[in-house]
Design a protein that fits this description.
Elements lengths: L1 H19 L4 H14 L7 H26 L5 H22 L4 H21 L12 H18 L4 H8 L6 H26 L10 E2 L2 E2 H22 L4 H20 L2
Antiparallel strand pairs: 1-2
Helix pairs in contact: 1-2, 1-3, 1-9, 2-3, 3-8, 3-9, 4-6, 4-8, 5-10, 6-8, 7-8
Amino acid sequence: MVIASYLIAGMFAGLVGGLLGVGGGIIVVPVLILVFESQGFSALVLTHMAIGTSLATIVFTSASSVLNHHRLGSVEWTIFKHMSIGIVAGAIAGVFVVTQLEGIWLRKMIGLFAVLMAGKMLVASASLSQRQLPASHVLASVGGVIGGISSMLGIGGGTLSVPFLSRYRLEMRQVIGTAAACGLPIAIAGALTNMSLGQGVEGRPNWSVGFVYLPALFGIAVTSVFFARIGARLAHRLSAITLRRLFSTALLIVGIKFLAF
């Protein structure tokens, strides 16, 4: 039953990641928290394990999603280049911060943030913005903020980068493809830092490397990679307003769930 939960979570994570450019963390973190609780994981490390493992799974989901979005021509690599330096630095710093916080506060932070972002996306116009992209140093700074918050919450970069990039003169498909690309360095830096900082922490289960639980990682990765390809293709068949509504609804559901814990 536990393995089935990981496989199903991977299916939804991959589909949502490819479709909405969010890496799948908004699905994986809540599922892992619930499954880890059912397995009797220590409350002292449970949420941190869910976040660290989620970031590790996003490496696989995001890589598959990015490859497919790139083949479909929807990744703006220039934007990615400017944002990636800040993203990596922010992601590493975010993990250092999150290890000092209690799990219950992390859940509330995730929930509140998701609800706020969902509301912002729902009221925003779905039409193409006429704003020009900011300078490269601004993109790098924003990337640092996105990387830091995303690694703290284990949700990948799309939850922040999609609302940010959608403010500028980019089609929604370009926004989603570029956000998916930005999620990859966040996941890599965040996962490696979680593996390192979690070493020696008491209460971790067997088969874990730092704050990454290997059975969950591999179970989710098996299905998420395949379904990320399907999600990326769907993103090119749906309208911009449909994509925006799907993204907002997913965020809202996750936010309410976390605030209700």
